[in-house]
Amino acid sequence: MLLVSGAALVPWLYVLARTLPSTARVGHWNVAWVGLDALEALGLLATAALRRRGGGAAATRHRLTAAATGALLVVDAWFDTVTAAPGSELAAAVALALCAELPLAAVCPALALGREGRTVRFRDDRRLTLGRRPTRR
Predict the structure, then answer these.
(1) Distance, CA of 95 to CA of 105 (rounded, Å)
(2) Which residues pair with residue 128 across a beta bridge?
(3) Exposure of 131 by Cβ count < 10 A (0-12 exposed, 13-18 middle, 19+ buried)?
(4) Measuring CA to CA, which residue among 9, 24, 129, 3 is closest to residue 82?
(5) How far apart, in whole angstroms, are the C-alpha atoms of residue 66 and residue 42?
(6) Is 128 helix (H, G, I), strand (E, B) or coil?
(7) Taking the alpha carbons of 112, 8, 19, 27 in that order, is the dihedral positive or negative?
(8) Is the pLDDT confidence value at 137 over 70?
(9) pLDDT of residue 121
(10) How far apart are CA 47 and CA 53, in angstroms?
């Protein structure tokens, strides 16, 4: 079903590219953007809260919220930049995407895949542990 749905979207993309207007007046524009940013905030807060709980079954619950939040952040960066007016508005959108949204989005897959607690080994045998605090037993 996923394969068929994905394949069916390919010709639909062509139809959209040929028929959608390049500009549009949109009702409830503010509600759309506030809603997207609210979902991002909720996702970040939920991921942090679930990750902080740790231990037992809750130890991996943050992975779902991290994955969803990462996707939302990428979508936000994309739409901020492609809908910005040329000039200072576009510059601000690109700066926000590069300095905030995309770096946060890059952390989310590491959290979702459980790779945030890895140890990095340098050539001179120094070690750096990323993310997780040691657990007490």
Answers:
(1) 15
(2) 120
(3) middle
(4) 24
(5) 11
(6) strand
(7) negative
(8) no
(9) 57
(10) 10
Residue 11: what residue type?
P
- The three-class DSSP label of residue 62 is helix
Nearest to 77 by CA among 101, 50, 109, 43: 101
Q: Which residues of 83-95 are buried (b: 16+ CB within 10 A; e: fewer)?
A: ebeeeeeeeebee
Contact status, residue 73 vs residue 106, Cβ threshold 8 Å: no
Scored b (16 or more CB within 10 A) or e, 17-51 reads: eeeeeeeeeeeeeeeeeeebeeebeebbebbeebb
**Which of 28, 33, 22 shows the shortest CA–CA distance to 96?**
33
pLDDT tens readout for residues 14-51: 999 999 998 888 899 999 999 999 999 999 999 999 88
CB atoms within 10 A of CB 109: 15
User: Would you give the DSSP letter of residue 129?
Assistant: E
Cα dist from 128 to 100, 104, 132, whole Å: 24, 21, 11
- Predicted TM-score (pTM) of this structure: 0.75
Q: Token digits for 33?
A: 């953007």
